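Risk mitigation, structural track. In case the binding assays with flavin-adenine dinucleotide fail to produce interpretable data, a predicted complex structure has been prepared as a fallback.
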Amino acid sequence: MALFDFAIVGAGIVGLAVAFELKKRHPGASIVVLEKEAALGKHASGRNSGVLHSGIYYGPDTLKARVCSRGAARMMDFAEEQGIPYRRSGKVIIATGEQDLPTVERLLQNARDNGIRAEKLDEKGIRDIEPHANPCRVGIYSPDTAVIDSRAVLEKLHALLARSGVCFVLDQVVTDVAEKERQLFTSTGKYSYGYVFNCAGANADRIARKFGLGRDYTLVPFKGLYYTLRPERAHLVRSNIYPVPDISLPFLGVHLTRVISDEVYAGPTAIPALGRENYGVFRGIRPGEGLDIGWQLARLYLRNQNNFRHLVHSEMERYRKANFLEAVRRLVPDIRADDLVPSKKVGIRPQLVNLRTRKLEMDFVVESAPSSLHVLNAISPAFTSSFAFAEMLVDRYEATATH
Ligand SMILES: Cc1cc2nc3c(=O)[nH]c(=O)nc-3n(C[C@H](O)[C@H](O)[C@H](O)COP(=O)(O)OP(=O)(O)OC[C@H]3O[C@@H](n4cnc5c(N)ncnc54)[C@H](O)[C@@H]3O)c2cc1C
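Fallback model:
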């Protein structure tokens, strides 16, 4: 049986960034990364919008605020060093009605509190940056928002880590743990570890429960569908146009993003899904899991915390192109139905629900025991934040681990 100082479950961006940080601080340590898929990027880290957020959405008392802008800066430095395509293209957030004005002020306050550059815009200011944006009275410009090729980041980290001696075992589902013996069981083997980092994305809650942790939580999935703008109409969006979000929810609303390849994506939705890998209409729904998730969603709907009923109604409607288009036209009214082409890109956002409060958890959630640490809610902007978040996780390991 192989013995490792550190075992990392999951080779998404969080697992890779943790391996990178561990290798930096403990160059002699042995590290194994156990990944259930045969290739990297099959889940959230390979299916996201590729936006490096500035951190304006998060109140100063949150973990997200502590790591987002620092993480974005570190990701851009990494991209620079490693020749990964990225572009600091900026973002306009527009207020499409009076109801958005208090949130605009709140976001500007977040920017001041978090030391992030942001500028309040009037209608002319918005039009100067995005000439086709909805003529709104008020908006915000975030110059430090960037776009990056997220799959290229995963590939580069994978290659660097493998070259530095980190052992990657793909096609290997972690199924169980013997905590006292410090052994992880996988679909085909057994691994002895000194310390485990559980970075299993949509399955992190299940793995945490095997360690007796995460009992107050469960994950429910939300499906992110995208359209792209026909290339002849892509000029309608210069960089990134976002709505003012509902800050009681962890989602930012359908937005328009000019990604690194210069295509313009519209989306993603946040439609409640019935499987943690429910990427198709029915594909990825397992009967038992579907029932359990359906039950959790029904309870959230009844309690209606985080304005959940409104979320369900407005998001379910977006399965219909006409309703999706309506959300897009609030940002750029000139976009027409035939400008939107369905995209193959679909992501699942595994969202943590607190079983006691029946609320969606808005911030990253981390739990740890003497020989393990569990990342339970690596929602957006975990991609942006990953390098700084990994520093925080390794700090926590160093402060709490017993050997
Ligand atoms: C549609 C969409 C758009 C987004 N847009 C952005 C954005 O623009 N900017 C941003 O910062 N963030 C964005 N996010 C969020 C971001 O992508 C995620 O927060 C981030 O990728 C989470 O990384 P992760 O490593 O925790 O999870 P994942 O990428 O899901 O990685 C977890 C890994 O664990 C593996 N695994 C699971 N279970 C097991 C097991 N039992 N054994 C072994 N391996 C296992 C999985 O196969 C997977 O590879 C978006 C997310 C989605 C879905």
